[in-house]
Request: fold
Amino acid sequence: MSLKLHIQDNIDWEPPSLHYTARGQAPEIFAPLVKAWLDKSALQVSKKGKLGTAITYNLNQWDKLLRYLDDGLLNIDNNRAERAVKPFVIGRKNWLFNVNHNGAETSAMLYSMIETAKANGLVPFDYINHCLEQLAKSPQDIESLLPWNVDLKKS
Reply:
């Protein structure tokens, strides 16, 4: 599986058609070997042990693994989703320490601005700095401060 992760790391930013091509090289060689080993090991290991449970799980998920190999749009892991959720988990723990409701609302607004800036490809510090500068000049023009309307390269 480490070869598969190595291939994925090298092609992560390439188009899905290249993913399929790159993945197509290794499965023809390694997938049958892994499947044969799993089938053989399933007969030799207790299904109640940790190794037996892992082997049974892999055999039960075999079709899904092959589907991953056939589709360049599918990722081998969910790291991207895990990274997206991590700030919420950290934020949830931090919000416990807000002294009052107004502090909690302010934290939530700031957090929302930071995550929306990130989602729109902006550096949060630069975006918030830009917003504060523009609000000092023209506090009525809120629409122009939305992250999808801001181009920090010009300013």
User: Anything to note?
Assistant: Residues 50 and 56 are 10 Å apart (CA to CA). The first helix runs from residue 2 to 11.
